[in-house]
Write a structure and sequence with these properties.
Blueprint: H1 4-8, E1 14-17, E2 28-32, E3 46-59, H2 65-70, H3 78-89, E4 96-104
Length: 110
Amino acid sequence: MLTKEQIRMRTKTVTKRLGWWFLKPGDVVWACEKCMGLKKGEKVRRICLIEIVDSHPEPLAAITQEECAKEGFLNMTPARFVEMFAKFNQCKPDTIVNRIEVRYGSSGKD
C-alpha cells in the first residue's frame, strides 16, 4: 500500500483501483497495509474501518489537482499522479479505474 500513512492520518478520502467494482455506498471495509501476496506466517495488518461513500468508473487521466489532494498527495500534479499510478499498476493513462470515495469512523479507534 502506497498510502498507508495518509490513511492513518485520515487525509485520504478517495482511492483509485483497477478492481473492487462490487463496492457500493454504505459498505464498510477494513483498510489494511497488505492483504494480498502474504508470505507464509505473515498476517493482515488492519489500519481502520472505512465506509464507502461512492464508487464509480472514470478514466485515470481525468484526475484533477483537487482529486490528488483527496488521494493524499497534496503537492502532486495530476500528470505525476497518473504516471505513478500507471507505472505501479502496469496500466495506461486512458485506463478506466474505479474511483472510490470513503469516510472514516468518528471514534478514531477502529
